[in-house]
Write a structure and sequence with these properties.
about 60 residues
């Protein structure tokens, strides 16, 4: 349910839900919230780099 809620907060809700599931997995794997936060930060940083390098502004 939390992954679906996470996905609904994003324009691309299916991709957001899948990402939320990955972050939930990161949390449940070791029980550390910091792992999920680090995964989310890493995803956002990679998307930002991709947008800036290739100019795919529609991703933002």
């Amino acid at each position: 349910m939390s992954s679906l809620a996470f996905g609904l907060l994003h324009d691309r809700w299916i991709v957001g839900t899948l990402a939320g599931m990955a972050y939930a997995f990161a949390f449940y794997r070791r029980g550390r919230l910091g792992d999920a936060i680090a995964a989310h930060m890493t995803t956002n940083a990679l998307i930002a780099i991709f947008v800036l390098v290739f100019g795919y502004w529609w991703l933002w």
